[in-house]
């Protein structure tokens, strides 16, 4: 039971807008069947903190149905969908057209999705027994992986220090202590029932029982977005097939809201397909203008330190903006096409602002330090007597690649 209508500290949040006293009173006495979740637990972050944009989490699939008077209008506003919208999933990587163009200075590619297994609560509401049950299904599922997907599962509970440190060094480990996740109920019984799987090449990961039951991640260096998406699709199928075979259960897939996640902002595909790419021309043109351009392309730019890490230099994390209302194939295609467009435009801005002085991809190299525009302009027209060699040819590797010393 949720008691009387609370004071919502996050006054500008979607919760403050959509959780009215009338709606609260309609659902305040409901406890969900799967894990006894309530509207008060769902809104805990918006009630506790004053900095939330969304401010609500679901404790199980039932939450979206039982608390629909609150969730439906909030989801419709956030995702920009109508009340009659339906969601279509499509993971067929063969439908992807083209790829990131050759020569685009893309450092790395990462695509992640979330998945939830039917019959178990979501992280804010999941019971201790259910959480352990999800982990057991996953520990068994990963044993069935073969080929490129084959790897090892590492439970957080009782983890050896050497393994923990390696996972930290690889930037794979998720940790406790996030105030939002704690207040939302996601860090109960820490670290029991949680763990990380990765394949041998460390290009395919699964986080078990973090913010979602499953966070499935495919990533690698370079700009082969299609290849990363193909691996992700195969990995998700392998997990789904194994869980179905062992438990008879499917992933939670809602006709209206797609794949069910604990945070309503991730509903639909739950997909974030991103690349780290250098855009020096756009940076010179103006970061605010880049953000506006990304909006037009249905993309989201961030600094490479993540959502709140800010921007340093001219390397950006560019990802799809939408989650719900588009299929996975559509979102990956938008990201590929959008990044190619940004890079094409970036080269024009480089000419405009830097003239013929080349962009040096290896920003931490000795070339980047010592080949200044002044030196370039003094030497650029010289051809050596012996073989007609030029400075442009001399520094070609530092211009083309981002890994030169």
The largest β sheet comes out as:
8 strands, antiparallel
Q: Poorly predicted ranges (pLDDT <50, ≥5 residues)?
A: 307-311
Task: Label the structural class.
Answer: alpha+beta
First-residue to last-residue Cα separation: 62 Å
Q: Assign a percent range to the helix content.
A: 25-40%
Strand content: 5-15%
Task: Give me a quick take on this structure.
The protein has 17 helices and ten strands. By secondary structure, the protein is α+β, with helices and mostly antiparallel strands. The strands form two sheets. Strands 2-3-4-5-1-8-10-9 form an eight-stranded antiparallel β-sheet. It has a two-stranded antiparallel sheet with strand order 6-7.
Summarize the helices and strands and which ones pair or pack.
Blueprint lengths: L13 H5 L2 H7 L11 H4 L1 H5 L12 H6 L1 H12 L26 E10 L12 H14 L9 E5 L5 H9 L9 H5 L11 E5 L4 E5 L5 E8 L3 H23 L5 E2 L3 E2 L12 E7 L1 H6 L1 H10 L2 E5 L11 E6 L7 H27 L11 H5 L2 H7 L11 H4 L1 H5 L5
Helix pairs in contact: 7-10
Task: Give structural notes.
The chain is an alpha+beta fold. It has helices at 14-18, 21-27, 39-42, 44-48, 61-66, 68-79, 128-141, 161-169, 179-183, 225-247, 280-285, 287-296, 328-354, 366-370, 373-379, 391-394, 396-400, and strands at residues 106-115, 151-155, 195-199, 204-208, 214-221, 253-254, 258-259, 272-278, 299-303, 315-320. The strands form two sheets. The chain has an eight-stranded antiparallel beta sheet. A hairpin with a 4-residue loop joins strand 3 and strand 4 (204-208). The radius of gyration is 24 Å and the shape is globular. Residues 307-311 have low confidence and may be disordered.
């Amino acid at each position: 039971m949720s008691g009387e209508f609370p004071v919502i500290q996050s006054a500008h949040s979607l919760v403050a807008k959509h959780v009215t006293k009338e709606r609260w009173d309609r659902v305040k006495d409901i406890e969900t069947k799967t894990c006894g979740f309530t509207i008060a637990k769902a809104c805990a972050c918006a009630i506790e903190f004053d900095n939330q944009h969304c401010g609500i989490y679901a404790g199980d699939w039932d939450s979206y149905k039982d608390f629909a008077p609150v969730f439906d209008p909030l989801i419709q506003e956030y995702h920009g969908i109508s009340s009659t919208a339906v969601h279509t999933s499509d993971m067929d990587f063969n439908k992807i057209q083209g790829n990131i163009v050759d020569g685009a200075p893309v450092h790395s590619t990462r695509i992640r999705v979330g998945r939830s297994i039917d019959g178990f609560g979501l992280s804010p509401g999941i019971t201790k027994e259910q959480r352990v049950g999800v982990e057991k299904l996953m520990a068994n599922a990963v044993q069935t992986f073969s080929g490129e997907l084959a790897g090892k599962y590492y439970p957080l509970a009782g983890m050896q220090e050497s393994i923990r440190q390696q996972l930290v060094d690889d930037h794979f480990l998720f940790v406790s202590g996030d105030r939002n996740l704690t207040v939302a109920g996601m860090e109960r019984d820490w670290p029991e029932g949680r763990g990380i799987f990765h394949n041998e090449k460390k290009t395919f990961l699964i986080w078990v029982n973090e913010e979602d039951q499953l966070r499935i991640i495919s990533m690698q260096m370079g700009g082969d977005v299609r290849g990363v998406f193909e691996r992700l699709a195969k990995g998700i199928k392998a997990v789904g097939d194994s869980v179905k075979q062992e438990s008879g259960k499917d992933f939670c897939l809602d006709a209206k809201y797609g794949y069910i996640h604990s945070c309503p902002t991730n509903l639909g595909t739950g997909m974030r397909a991103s690349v780290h790419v250098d855009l020096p021309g756009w940076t010179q043109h103006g970061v605010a203008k880049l953000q506006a351009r990304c909006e037009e392309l249905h993309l989201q730019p961030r600094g490479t330190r993540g959502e709140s890490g800010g921007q340093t230099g001219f390397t950006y994390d560019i990802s799809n903006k939408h989650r719900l209302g588009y299929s996975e194939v559509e979102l990956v295609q938008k990201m590929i096409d959008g990044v190619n467009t940004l890079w094409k435009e970036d080269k024009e801005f480089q000419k405009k602002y830097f003239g013929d002085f080349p962009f040096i991809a290896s920003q931490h190299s000795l070339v980047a330090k010592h080949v200044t525009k002044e030196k370039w302009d003094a030497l650029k027209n010289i051809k050596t007597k012996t073989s007609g060699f030029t400075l442009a040819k001399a520094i070609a590797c530092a211009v083309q690649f981002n890994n030169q010393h």
